[in-house]
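S1.2 Input.
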Amino acid sequence: MLRKLPYLVVGVALLASACSSSSTSTSPTPGPQTLYVGNCGSTISITEYPASATGNVAPTVTIAGAATLLQCPEGLAFDSAGTLYVADYSSNSVIEFAPGASGNATPVRQITGLSGPVDVAFDSSGNLYVGQYTGNRVDVFAPLANGAATPIRSINTGAAGLLHADYVHFDTSGNLWVSEEVNPAGNHVVAYAPGASGNATPVFSITGANTQLSGALGMTLDSANNIYVSNYGSSAVTVYAAGSNGNVAPIRTVSGALTQIHIPYGIAFDNAGNYYVANCSGAGPPPDNVAVFPSTANGNVAPARDIAGAATGLSCPWGITLH
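S1.3 Output.
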């Protein structure tokens, strides 16, 4: 993983019927949503915007400061109670904030002792799944786990040939999808059956030259279980048909100068079927931004909306979710 660009790190996930993101299998409830972005650049923060935001807009809320314990916020997710969970790569922990947290907020809980956590997701029972880049595993924790909690089980992704575990997301059948972006043998996006543990064999594995995976980091699924992958190596979003397996070509690819996609990381859907791509571009061009596309976008197309500019507070945005 590009763990040191001008800055560092990612994000994505969630549960709860009022939320949508890169890690939930629940059906979102229509209504206004808020966009949450984890920033891991010269400023360490979580910034919030209306989902409809566009242009050089200031965040409505910023979570930042020493009391937050944030060092590099990656995957973001909400549980059914509206608690915000943050996979914080640099502190090797998952940091949790109460609903409505803002400013220099103190976390309500922190799961410690992890190994490069990148993303978080919840299953239908409220168990927390944490993808870990340096740990090369997905740990599963009981609801409300805290401190040096012991996982209820772990998936050793290395047994499937993956060197790392990055983004995690559930499909509507309860399969757990996991992305991996650094591997001399080729990038992978794999899926594990519900309840998988230990050296489980994936039920699906997307890998090979035809896939065009290149730094496959951010990953999410739409309501039809199509798989969307943000590739920082090629500055592209590649889309695969539901149930894809093996050395398969994408059904759509979004890339090129018009897209504003450059070094993309987090990717998440809103409840209207648009997807948001966090781009850690530094000074660019283009600069750090969040680009928004309809699910059918293909080719070198301009985003429907783009959040960018000095007022936004974006600083190497990696983590992204909507709630």
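S1.4 Remarks. The domain at 34-322 is CATH 2.120.10.30 (Neuraminidase).
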